[in-house]
Amino acid sequence: MSTGNLDFEQFRVFLEKACGILLGENKQYLVSSRLNKLMEQQGIKSLSELVQRIQSQPRSGLREMVVDAMTTNETLWFRDTYPFEVLKNKVLPEQIKANPGQRLRIWSAACSSGQEPYSISMAIDEFERSNIGQLKMGAQIVATDLSGSMLANCKTGEYDSLAIARGLSPERLQRYFDPKGPGRWAVKMPIRSRVEFRSFNLLDSYAALGKFDIVFCRNVLIYFSAQVKKDILLRIHSTLKPGGYLFLGASEALNGLPDHYQMVQCSPGIIYQAK
């Protein structure tokens, strides 16, 4: 597969327009590793030919396949640990108090292979077990991702032993999963039924999502330019109820937007409260 500089530049422009992802100038190897197989199957020799084919055959489904391949990420259960502890010990009690008699709504943006929304659902179950009767109206988790194939896998709630090994304790595996044959497990229905998966591009309108008490948008903003990142953070703010919380990735910080978000130190970790 050819990834000449001009080819790569064309592809970078295409990808940013399609889904906002800004590829670094030295990311040719990433593009090669993610698209080699697809381009081979389609008999495409270069990135410029790929972009040309997408533009000339908009109904072929090639655009979706390329975005899919470039945005697919395996992730971990209970990634970084602290967000889920902060959720159970601080955020859930606060939000229940602030919204008595209402069902809590949580958005897991860019949910990838489903570990984040299912981890949130397990954390809610753990909270309910130790705070019986507090979350009277329950909670709904809306999990969104750009990748159609990822979402289809998420909905089955099935994972192999390789995925299970990434961050899941034996206790949680036993409590929240059913064995589904050799080396496969399925998330139990009470955990799955709290999560609704939807296909969604972070560059599209947020109006249909409704309002949320809590938003997890972790380890995704790193892929966007500063301007797009700021735009997404402002639009997330518009979906958050006043006093609602935003969780970012451990290495991500929210610089600016002091009129919209207030930083809250949780030791460990930082979260942001919507003003």
Tell me what you see in this structure.
It catalyses: L-glutamyl-[protein] + S-adenosyl-L-methionine = [protein]-L-glutamate 5-O-methyl ester + S-adenosyl-L-homocysteine. InterPro entries: Bact_Chemotaxis_MeTrfase, Chemotaxis_MeTrfase_CheR, CheR_C, CheR_MeTrfase, CheR_N, CheR_N_sf, SAM-dependent_MTases_sf. The protein is an alpha/beta fold and 275 residues long. 44% of the residues lie in helices and 19% in strands. The protein has 11 helices and 10 strands. It has helices at residues 5-19, 28-42, 47-56, 62-71, 82-98, 115-130, 148-156, 161-164, 170-176, 189-192, 226-239, and strands spanning 104-109, 139-145, 158-160, 177-179, 184-187, 195-199, 212-216, 240-247, 261-265, 270-274. The strands form 2 sheets. A 7-stranded mixed β-sheet has the order 6-2-1-7-8-10-9. The protein has a 3-stranded antiparallel β-sheet with strand order 3-5-4. It starts with a helix and ends with a strand. The model has no long low-confidence stretch (mean pLDDT 92).
